[in-house]
Design a protein that fits this description.
- It is a single chain.
- The protein has one domain: Vaccinia Virus protein VP39 (Rossmann fold, 3-Layer(aba) Sandwich), CATH 3.40.50.
- The termini are far apart.
- Helix 1 packs parallel to helix 5, helix 1 packs across helix 9 and helix 7 crosses helix 11.
- Helix content is about 40%, strand content about 25%.
- It contains 11 helices and 8 strands.
- Strands 1, 2, 3, 4, 5, 6, 7 and 8 form an 8-stranded mixed sheet that branches.
- The model has no long low-confidence stretch (mean pLDDT about 95).
- The structure holds S-adenosylmethionine (SAM).
Length: about 270
């Protein structure tokens, strides 16, 4: 399928509209672990004027606000924005697309995006937009999921679907992102004109009762992974869960599964 940015945008928006209500319990336990490091990467502290780009239900925005920053959030999903505004009424959440952030030039001291940029059809446009709305010396930090070698939860799911289902079953448009490694991030930041760039691996642990609970979380709280799982046949899902459960043995402890996850946090400064 050739790359079609509008198809990707529509697919992602529909996915996150559907996921918004369940996101806090389904997927945020994975993404929230990295917020403190993300905010550190953009030097967010008291008085920082910061934008949380692709804010979802606003958890990074809320942590920035708790640090004493002056915070705005942006997302293209109305359902996500409803969740964010209900939870954090003191924060200004704006509807808009990360490819064309609706803010004036040089408005912010910092921009952060926690697992947002790789969902945008053309991340290069988002990075150019961030560059434009940062003041000179302003800092940008964003996170993406690390590769499957580091991200055991993801690896287990894809391996099980490959063995017992069909990884290509979803009729999802080909993503535009192509952000999979730290060097992808560094290259994109450099191309967008950022300086003092960095990309660091940060590890976490995503706990689940069992394999089916991991699959349920991904089905409820994501867009692309949910589409892949939704496209499996009814017979394949129990086989995928069983295969995953068996393969997850090394990460089982008294409380269930303690699955290693990891992200890359990439940072840059507007000259
Ligand atoms: C995986 S969620 C991350 C949410 C939140 N940042 C967090 O820390 O959990 C991705 C978010 O990006 C938003 N998003 C994806 N593409 C977007 C775009 N082109 N413009 C604005 N928001 C977008 C989705 O609506 C969703 O809320």
């Amino acid at each position: 399928m050739p790359f079609d940015p509008e198809a990707v945008r529509a697919f992602e928006r529909a996915g996150f509209e559907r996921a918004a209500a369940a996101y806090e319990t389904a997927f945020a336990p994975a993404t929230r672990q990295f917020i403190a490091r993300l905010l550190d990467g953009a030097a967010v502290g008291p008085g920082t004027d910061v934008l949380d780009l692709c804010c979802g239900p606003g958890f990074a925005a809320a942590e920035a606000s708790a640090r004493g920053a002056s915070v705005s959030g942006l997302d293209f999903s109305e359902a996500m924005l409803r969740e964010a505004r209900a939870r954090f009424p003191a924060i200004a959440f704006t509807h808009g697309d990360a490819e064309a952030p609706p803010f004036e030039d040089a408005r912010f001291d910092a921009v952060v995006s926690n697992f947002g940029i790789h969902h945008v059809p053309r991340p290069a446009l988002a990075l150019a937009g961030v560059h434009r709305i940062l003041r000179s010396g302003g800092k940008f930090a964003f996170s993406i999921w690390a590769g499957h070698d580091e991200n055991i939860a993801w690896k287990l799911v894809f391996d099980a679907v490959r063995r017992f289902g069909n990884v290509n079953a979803a009729a999802a448009p080909a993503p535009g992102g192509g952000f999979a490694t730290g060097s992808d991030c560094l290259m994109a930041l450099h191309d967008a004109g950022f300086m003092d760039t960095g990309a660091h691996l940060v590890r976490g642990t995503w706990r689940h009762k069992d394999a089916m609970s991991l699959l349920d979380s991904l089905r409820a709280g994501t867009a692309r992974m949910a589409a892949m799982l939704a496209a499996q046949t009814e017979a394949a899902i129990p086989a995928i869960a069983q295969g995953l459960e068996a393969a997850a043995g090394p990460w089982r402890d008294g409380g269930g599964l303690a699955l290693p996850i990891a992200c890359v946090i990439a940072t840059g400064t507007r000259p």
